[in-house]
Amino acid sequence: MFGNPIISSLLPSSGLTALQGSQMGAARPMGGMMPGASMQVSSWGNAFGSQNQSMGMQQSWMQLLYGLVMVQLFQTLLQKPQPKPLPEPEPISPTLIEDRPEAKVIGDINYRNLNLEERRKLSNMSDRERAVLHLWGRQMIAEGKQDGGILLTVLESAQTGQNDGTVLTENAEVLLAQELVAKEKERFGAVTGRTLDEEFFKLYEKLTGKDISARYANAPLHKADGPTRMPKQFRLDSPEWESALQEQSGLNGFENSVLRLWGHNPLFTGNIDGSILAFTLANEKSLDPGLNKADVRNLLEADMVADGKLNGDALEKAFVDVMDKMYLGTEGASVEKTKQFALDRARALKRTAQQIKQSTTEGVQDAIKSVGKTMKDHPVLTGISISGLLTAAIICPFLAGLGMGGAGVAIAQRLIEGGRDD
pTM value? Predict the structure, then answer.
């Protein structure tokens, strides 16, 4: 009857004995007893008396019933549907990236001095869209995840009139925060940032032409436990500040650079074309003068290696890697992954080693020079002049062993002296 090993293992031995004895008793003729049952009753009677015998039988039946209930519970748990796992991010194949137009040249622009109308025209974005871009970026750089805390930061700053620098508290940002917080409390009963994500994904599609919302549709929902804050105990962009930020957000320095550069690119061009890389290296008025120049240069070189043009493909790939980490918990972005993407893309396009070499030398040099033409009298914040950056780009190749050496330095020297580079 109990051939199921799971049931047999869960049932008490006394319960099995009692049930078997009952079945045997039911099968015996009226007035007689089966020998096994007689011995069982006799032994119980000798040990405990007839009253204890009855109690023992009841206890055995209770143990049997308990065992059956446990078996049913165990089987129910086994049949319970498991939660649906998060979807694995689809790899971005270099062959799937369409041919992109070359980057615009960002001239001598000081974005901080532009009025609202000038910012609208330059970026082709409304005040609301720029508010979405800014608040989403600040949230992710500070926390490495979305919980909507930045919306509370805006409302707190607007209410108290005090601003610690985490947000700018412009009118568009205040209106956006008020709207999204109201929606979130109605939908979730708390602030989660999910509505800010929805707004950002719509903007992302406008900037890149790709709908990425489904990629992160099943990302975990986080509730804000208060306003989002940037590290304040250290000077902005100092090594100590960067270390504190990495500890707070879980993003490495390269990932932080990618987020900031990607977010600032469309403010100048209305899309992601990589122009922000050369601009950040060559212009002291850049919005990110304190970024690690090696990170910016690595992104610029990777962009040129991929297809011989500065068009933002490497920056875009690194940005998606960072988003995968923040939303899906994957590995994230790194210089090595970005370089490998560029090489895979170059191979897919059948680019030769000589072409790759030219991209990391003359290509990078031309990209910086195109921005630096109007910057000759403006040294970069780090103290390296435009001519110094040109030299550094030539003697710091993307691939080991492909540098131009003395010839590259000679070209740079002619540029410094105002001569031709051809």
Answer: 0.67
Tell me the pLDDT tens digit for each residue of 361-419. Answer: 888 888 887 775 544 433 332 333 444 444 333 333 333 322 223 333 333 333 333 33
What is the dihedral sign for C-alpha 231, 232, 237, 238? negative
Sign of CA dihedral 124, 197, 219, 265: positive
Distance CA 68, CA 343 (A): 63
Beta strands in 147-217 (DSSP E): none
> Is 121 exposed, middle or buried, given 0-12, 13-18 or 19+ CB atoms closer than 10 A?
exposed
- Contact between 248 and 287 (Cβ < 8 Å): no
* Contact in structure between 24 and 36 (CB atoms under 8 Å): yes
Triad 247, 147, 150: Cα angle to 5°: 80
Tokens of 370: 């195109």
Q: If we measure between CA atoms, which residue out of 287, 262, 111 comes closest to residue 200?
A: 262
The conformation of residue 330, written as its DSSP 8-state character, comes to -
What gap in Å lies between CA 321 and CA 262, rounded to an integer?
12
Cβ proximity of 111 and 168 under 8 Å: no
- Rounded distance, CA 150 to CA 196, Å? 10
Q: What is the pLDDT of residue 205?
A: 96
Rg (CA), the chain: 34
**DSSP assignment letter at 125:** -
Compute φ and ψ for 144, nearest 5 degrees: 70, 10
- Coil vs helix vs strand at 258: helix
Tokens at 43, concatenated: 């032994």
Residues 163, 169: contact at Cβ < 8 Å? yes
Residues 268/279, Cβ–Cβ less than 8 Å: yes
For the four alpha carbons of 164, 167, 168 and 174, in that order, the dihedral sign comes to: negative
Q: How far is CA 88 from CA 210, 220, 235, 327, 334, in A?
A: 18, 14, 38, 11, 19
Return the residue matching tokens 């009855």: 54
Within 10 Å of residue 408's Cβ, how many Cβ atoms?
A: 20
49-78 as b/e, with b when 16 or more CB fall inside 10 Å?
Answer: eeeebeeebeebeebbeebeeebeeeeeee
Instruction: Mention every residue, 6+ apart, whose C-beta is less than 8 A from residue 319.
Output: 258, 259, 262, 272, 333
